[in-house]
TrEMBL record:
<keyword id="KW-0808">Transferase</keyword>
<dbReference type="InterPro" id="IPR029063">
    <property type="entry name" value="SAM-dependent_MTases_sf"/>
</dbReference>
<keyword id="KW-0819">tRNA processing</keyword>
<dbReference type="GO" id="GO:0106339">
    <property type="term" value="F:tRNA (cytidine(32)-2'-O)-methyltransferase activity"/>
</dbReference>
<comment type="function">
    <text>Methylates the 2'-O-ribose of nucleotides at positions 32 and 34 of the tRNA anticodon loop of substrate tRNAs.</text>
</comment>
<keyword id="KW-0963">Cytoplasm</keyword>
<dbReference type="InterPro" id="IPR002877">
    <property type="entry name" value="RNA_MeTrfase_FtsJ_dom"/>
</dbReference>
<dbReference type="GO" id="GO:0030488">
    <property type="term" value="P:tRNA methylation"/>
</dbReference>
<feature type="domain" description="Ribosomal RNA methyltransferase FtsJ">
    <location>
        <begin position="21"/>
        <end position="232"/>
    </location>
</feature>
<feature type="binding site">
    <location>
        <position position="55"/>
    </location>
    <ligand>
        <name>S-adenosyl-L-methionine</name>
    </ligand>
</feature>
<dbReference type="GO" id="GO:0002128">
    <property type="term" value="P:tRNA nucleoside ribose methylation"/>
</dbReference>
<dbReference type="InterPro" id="IPR028590">
    <property type="entry name" value="RNA_methyltr_E_TRM7"/>
</dbReference>
<dbReference type="GO" id="GO:0005737">
    <property type="term" value="C:cytoplasm"/>
</dbReference>
<feature type="binding site">
    <location>
        <position position="124"/>
    </location>
    <ligand>
        <name>S-adenosyl-L-methionine</name>
    </ligand>
</feature>
<comment type="similarity">
    <text>Belongs to the class I-like SAM-binding methyltransferase superfamily. RNA methyltransferase RlmE family. TRM7 subfamily.</text>
</comment>
<keyword id="KW-0489">Methyltransferase</keyword>
<dbReference type="GO" id="GO:0008175">
    <property type="term" value="F:tRNA methyltransferase activity"/>
</dbReference>
Length: 312
């Protein structure tokens, strides 16, 4: 089964390569934006679990390119911190006099190839020091929008996978409570499992509106969807704290009277491609070639195996 076969089975995989996105996930964020207008007036964004970087590409296009702002080429600088290497890429966009405040900070365990106007931090979002690293990049200013497309490596043990995913969302939310300005928006990938209603309820205490959204580019056969949390409203007198955890903080009451039922919304134009369908490719010599991925993985898990094989 080659690239060409995947091109046929997955129209968004093919379109991503044709349009220059590093991953098909770009379409998910674009379709969420079609529905929720996530980028309107946004200046400072945090993209959690961002590698290989297609969401960051979308953000760079929205915050710089579409607004006619030169983003700079993005630079990577090696630093050092807990547990290994931290890489930060610095945008030259901040030096632009027209758009001094626009800033995108992207975080992932994996290294990311530079993206125009994006500062990348190689770090674990569950580690307490990561918050400080992001805050430092914003120079104390809060973010307007935080998104997380995080997914842990799947073990195949369903309960363990579900638990790890839930912990990742929790970490993303904990960071968000410290980074987001009141009124700001948060979007995160979720897998609709057994206890999802509890999460909607808890999110409903922190945001004006919580919606569960399924973009057309997310396969219908997958449990994946996205929580779109609009209008951050930290309760007066409540100070979020990484140590205790947002959901168990005693000062965040959970009154049953405020129970939240999150509406479910399918988003993306109905005339757009169906991610579960197989599309026929144009045939004939010279009509089309299967393109290579836009960005090869910078540090794939199989890298060492390939090196060992090469050395026999
Ligand atoms: N949104 C990305 C894009 O558009 O290219 C794709 C994200 S990918 C589906 C999920 C990412 O979550 C992986 O790159 C993985 O390294 C990252 N991840 C998983 N656990 C993490 C953690 N604890 N801290 C930071 N990143 C994590």
């Amino acid at each position: 089964m080659g690239k060409s076969s995947k091109d046929k089975r997955d129209i968004y995989y093919r379109k991503a390569k044709e349009e220059g996105w590093r991953a098909r996930s770009a379409f998910k964020l674009l379709q969420l934006d079609q529905q929720f207008h996530l980028f309107d007036g946004v200046q400072r964004v945090v993209d959690l679990c961002a590698a290989p970087g297609s969401w960051s590409q979308v953000l760079s296009r929205e915050l710089f390119e579409k607004r006619g702002i030169e983003a700079g080429s993005g630079k990577t600088v090696a630093g050092s911190t807990f547990g290994g290497k931290v890489v930060t890429g610095e945008s030259t966009a901040q030096k632009s006099s027209t758009m001094e405040k626009a800033k995108i900070v992207s975080v992932d365990l994996q290294p990311m190839a530079p993206i125009a106007g994006v500062t990348t931090i190689q770090a674990d979002i569950t580690h307490p020091q990561t918050l400080k690293m992001i805050l430092d990049e914003f120079g104390g200013e809060p973010a307007d929008f935080v998104c997380s497309d995080g997914a842990p490596d799947v073990t195949g043990l369903h309960d363990l996978d579900e638990y790890t995913q839930a912990q990742l969302i929790l970490s993303a939310l904990q960071l968000t409570t410290q980074l987001l300005r009141p009124g700001g928006n948060f979007v995160a990938k979720i897998f609709r499992g057994r206890d999802i209603d509890l999460m909607y309820f808890q999110l409903g205490l922190l945001f004006e509106q919580v919606t569960c959204a399924k973009p057309r580019s997310s396969r219908g056969s997958s449990l994946e969807s996205f929580i779109v949390c609009q209008g951050y409203k930290p309760r007066s007198g409540w100070s979020p704290d990484l140590a205790t955890g947002v959901m168990v903080n005693k000062e965040l009451p959970l009154p049953i009277s405020e129970r939240v039922v999150a509406p479910f919304v399918a988003c993306g134009d109905l005339s757009e491609y169906d991610s579960d369908a197989t599309y026929t490719l144009p045939s004939g010599e010279g009509v089309r070639v299967s393109l290579d991925p836009v960005q090869s993985p910078t540090c794939p898990p199989y890298k060492r195996a390939v090196e060992m094989k090469r050395k026999n």
